[in-house]
Amino acid sequence: MVEPEGGTVPNWPYNLVQQMSERLDVQSSGVESRLGGIETQLQNLHAELSGVKTVPERTDNVVKQLSELLDTKLSGTTARLGSIEVQNLHAELSGVKTVPERTDNVVKQLSELLETKLSGTAARLGSILGSIEIEQKNFSSEISAVKAELAWSRVSLGQALRPRALAVKTAKETLVQSTEDRLTAMVEKSTLRQFESACGRTFTIPDLYSTFSAHAVEWNLMGKTDAWWSVLTDFPRGADIPEDDKRKFYESGKVHIAYVWQTLGGRPFDRSQSVLDFGCGVGRLAFAFADVFGSVACVDQSFYHLRLAEAEWKIRGGQQPAKINFTSSGPDLLSAVNGQRFDFVHSVVVLQHMVSPLQTVYLAQFCDVLKHGGRAWIQIPTKTFADSCDLESSRTAGGMQMHYTPATIISHVIESRGCSAKVIQVGGRYIEGGMSSAVVLVERTGPEF
User: Fold this and answer.
1) CA 141, CA 136: separation in Å to the nearest integer?
2) Residues whose CB is less than 8 angstroms from the CB of residue 180 and which lie 6 or more positions away in sequence, other chains included
3) Among 6, 223, 351, 381, which is disulfide-ready with 304 (CB 3.0 to 4.6 Å)?
């Protein structure tokens, strides 16, 4: 017997031969004596088949060898037995021989179908990959163009903005340094809270406390007993005035405000801004300012005048949206208003009742409390007959005094605080008896202190 090359025989040929052997044993039971030799040969064949080794790809060779072997073994017995069963067995073995051929055909067909499918898939995949590659190249080109344009824009923008940025930086640094230098110099020389005067010396606020207190006593006494007379001297002292006269008095404030706007070249303020009315008394002008400004500070040294003003505002200002703050002041104006800055500062027929050093202290602080770009309208005498530098006489004299500061000193004091000053002489408009006064228009041009 020829042994197939490589591997082992599959189980199904072995099983089939086993079945054949058993069926032959049954069929040959009656002729056991005559077929003894054949049975022995079949048993030997079965033993030989048990040791056969092959691989699936050699199956048709094994089947062919088995078929030839069986044909040889059975050819001699067919004539002697003449058995139908043997003939049937031979037919079954013939059918077995065709199995590998059918299997090969199926495998071949499956292989051809698979190759066809794979070929189409590969073609489509190649087409998709080609399209992706083209899109990637186009996108890369667009990205490169955008990057180039962005780089150019950055360079152009940098070149365009660099000079302006440098100029702004330089201007800012110059302004900051100038302000720092100025403040440092003032602090080092202790001049920030020292004030020049027309009296040949500088004054600090504590230097003037006693003189201010003497004046404040006079005005608080008048506010307590003769408030209306202190502002309307045509009425008798100590008496209240008729309601109709009060109404006319407060309405007259609007006439004065119109004159203020005229000297300023128009009304440059609105409801969003603030005003400080210095020496507001019983509130005549503070009430009129409430028609224009959103916030009004009514500042006075007399508590009793302020109390009367607040009571009148409750009667007359109920419909006004403006807020009025009634504030008692001392020589330190900035402290009195809690460091607040204003868009506009106003004072009329007030400074004339203070000695010249107090006048210049307040003139300087009017500039100090202005916002940058803020403005002020200040009336102050430039000529009276009093010795406005004699502080001791002023403290002991009492009453309603009339003092002045020369126009040249007025301008110098204001300008030294970082504001511009325009002095307009108005003669006897606010003062009588051969005396004269001026209106000072102030604007904050320097940085705030």
Assistant:
1) 9
2) none
3) 223
